[in-house]
Structure formats: C-alpha cells, structure tokens
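User: Need the bound-state model for adenosine-3'-5'-diphosphate:
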Amino acid sequence: GEEDDLKLTHECKELLLSLPKERGWRTPYIYRFQGFWCQPKEIQAILSFRKHFQARNGDVVLATVPKSGTTWLKALVFAILNRNLYPLNSNSHPLLVSNPHDLVPFLEYKIYANNQIPDLSKFPEPGIFATHVPFAAVKESINKSSCKIVYICRNPFDTFISSWIFCSKIGAENFPSLSIEEAFNMYCNGTIGFGPFWEHMLGYWKESQERPEKVLFLKYEDLKGDITFHLNKLAKFLGCPFSMEEQKQGIVEEVAKLCSFENLKNLEVNKTGKAIMNFENRHLFRKGEIGDWVNYLSPSMVEQLKQVMEEKLGGSGLEF
Ligand code: A3P
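Assistant: Bound-state model below.
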C-alpha cells in the first residue's frame, strides 16, 4: 500500500493506523495528527524533529501556512541576518544562485526528512530553520532557548487559490487533481495540509500577542504594502536593526529588491532548479499578487469563506 511505498518506519505506520484520515490534496490520504492534517512522510519527520530538535540561542524559526509567503520570508530573513557576511549588492550573493529553500531548510522536508537525525551543533549560527507545523507542535523545541519565531500569513482567499493551483501543478502525474469546488470545501472544513488554517494562524497570533519579543506575526499584504517599514521591524525583532547609516545607504531597499518576486522569479536557479523534494522551483513563483482570487471564486464561494473567517477568526483581533 501507500505506506509501504514511502518507506515509513514501523512507529509511523503503527501511528497512522490510529489516526483519522481523509482524501489528500496531492496524496491519497492526509491524517489528523495532533490536531492538524498531514501527509504520512510529514508525520514521520515531525515525530523525529519533535524528539530531536532543540533550537540554540540566536536561532530563528520561520513558521507559515503553506503558500503564505514562505519563500519570500526565507529570502528576507536570510538576507537580513547575513548582510555583513554577504553584502547585498554582491553579484555572488547566495540568493542569486540558490533557491531560498536551499538556504533556509524546512525541519520537516529537509533536516529531519527520510529518517535523518543530523547533528545540528555544526550548523552555522545563527541557524535559520522553517516549519509549517502549528505553534503547539514547535514550542517545546524553541522555548528552552532564546530562539525567535517569525510567522507570516496571508489572506485566506489568496492562500486557497495559491494552494489549489500549486497542488495541481506539482501533484503526481497518476494522481487526479481536485476540482476547485472539492478543494474549496476541504479548505473551508480545515482539511488541508497543516490546517485548519484558522487554528494555525490563531496559535501563532495568540503567542505573538502574549510574547511579542518571542514571536513576530507578519502578514503578506502588509509586507507588500510597506516593505521598508516591515523590514525595519523585522531586523529590529531579530536583534540586528538597520543602523541610521545603513538606512541612509539604502540597504533596506536593497534587501527588498534582492528578495522581490520579480528578481527571484527570473533567476536561472529558480527557473530550472529543484529545492524541495521533487518540485520545480518555478512553481514557487506564480503571480505574487494580492487579490488574484477574484479570477477564480464564485460569489457563493466568497460568501462561504467569509463566513468561515467570521466564525473562526472573529473576535480574535486578527483581520484580513
Ligand atoms: P501566488 O500563487 O499567489 O502567486 P510559499 O512561498 O509559501 O509557497 O507561497 C507562495 C506564494 O508566494 C505564491 O503566490 C508565490 O508567487 C508568492 N511568492 C513567491 N516569492 C515571492 C516573493 N519574493 N515576493 C512576493 N511573493 C512571492
């Protein structure tokens, strides 16, 4: 069966037998594991990372719902934290020759994937890692150190469209894609990788309100709206604010430009390479716009998702 093909550990196979499952977006099944929906391979890697990963002081974890701006955030944080090591205007900057996912690895897709248990003490400091798991599943790995979390989310309408299109592009050839109506209903029911999306957002949102020095909560739309302001905020949060001198020299704008959608999309490495599993990097750069959902969703779908958002996020202070 599917589980055998994936070379899962005995522990993981046993666990899967006990979990509720639903049809997946690009795998036959996703399973409800500790309150969120995941693919078998992800569950195996998450079990391992929860057992072995302890962030060091100074490390940074980037957390996102898939398709919310992960690639962008990885590029920005990498560029900011390494700006002395790698000057932004250098024509050999790592972001010009590597995809952001190669520079900032996912805990569950890279570091702890395929039963690896790497020795992270040799990893360059500060370590920058990424994850899609909800806050409750990552907190034990980060709370014992001064590691900080940067979270980015995006309005659910665009995130849904981005997810649906991405899954239909990267899904296995012999695996039928979901129709937009099927995918939409699953999204609204919370049955999507790392969903329900509202629980994911609220977990990090609440933590950012209670411990603003530990968790920075960003929105894709806000970054698009005023990148300079938000890069200053981000650098300050990370403990390496842009000096007056750097601001005068236009360094903040250089970070924004280097990491911009247009710049990254057109690099050779992002047109032809593969950074995560077998996905082609080019699928990570689609439109990069706000509001593309108007081209796909019917009025009744819009109404349905609005209601879900009102019901689940209303009163939390988190708005889109
Ligand atoms: P669209 O599908 O709406 O174009 P993730 O990186 O979390 O997978 O999110 C992917 C979304 O972010 C895609 O949205 C993609 O085009 C957009 N994106 C990728 N790189 C970006 C960048 N540098 N700036 C802004 N948006 C970017």
